[in-house]
């Protein structure tokens, strides 16, 4: 598993994954295998839903919303899998708990960073609304105000977000968590670890796409080298190659943003500037009306998309937080001796 620039480096999750099906150690029964297979089939179906024939549908707010929904559903599936396996917390290996708490705090940090960026982008909507209001007049003074609002919007959207800049180090930590603890004595544990691995791969991929999109840089793009052992690996590789390649193409084209809805607004703004500055010709007036209408539609679509994605990010945050709180409650009621490292993870402060 590696970032894009280290694509040739790879390693097997859990050590050697083929050890899982070797005759040594605890074997997975046919019943447990069926449970795992059903989980992975569902995971693969979610991956397929993120693969669109048209590249124009990728890197849009609607696609990102679907990706975040896939994460929430997958984490809920893990919770249901634990219940189906009848694997109470007091049977969990200490290392599994360590990993879970460490991952959960990183995910909460990422959710907070993504929410802050979505909020910042939504704040720019007011500037667009002011511009549209002033463009409803034929006054040169109103046009000047509209230009000022549009300049303010572009400057606001183009400014950096310190929280997003921290996502790279958090993602590096998540990348390391893919090397999950080995499971030697528990067949149910092996099933849980393999299922968790698939969800973690989806998590790192989706979060890296979010971070790259919001940061305006390819430095957060990751290439995850998943072993062919997993039934969903082919679908994941297809998705990853499709999305990562589109990210690189859009960045290399010098676009203002790689996000579809933002690019649509920016295109309308670029068309407006020269017309606003010299509106006298009736033909230009007609052209202005059409472009203003287009900007209005693009602005509304951007606002709606941001609202929906914000709700999904908040929903995922609650899924992670609820799961974390439930495990803590079970640990306390089970009177389990908690490893010191896990304790520090549990009490870690979320980056704000």
From TrEMBL:
GO terms classed as biological process: root development; shoot system development
Keyword Transmembrane helix: yes
UniProt keyword annotations, A-Z: Membrane, Transmembrane, Transmembrane helix
Keyword Cytoplasm applies: no
Parts of the chain that traverse the membrane: 191-214
Domain of life from the UniProt record: Eukaryota
InterPro entries: BPS1_pln (IPR004320)
Protein name in the entry: Protein BPS1, chloroplastic
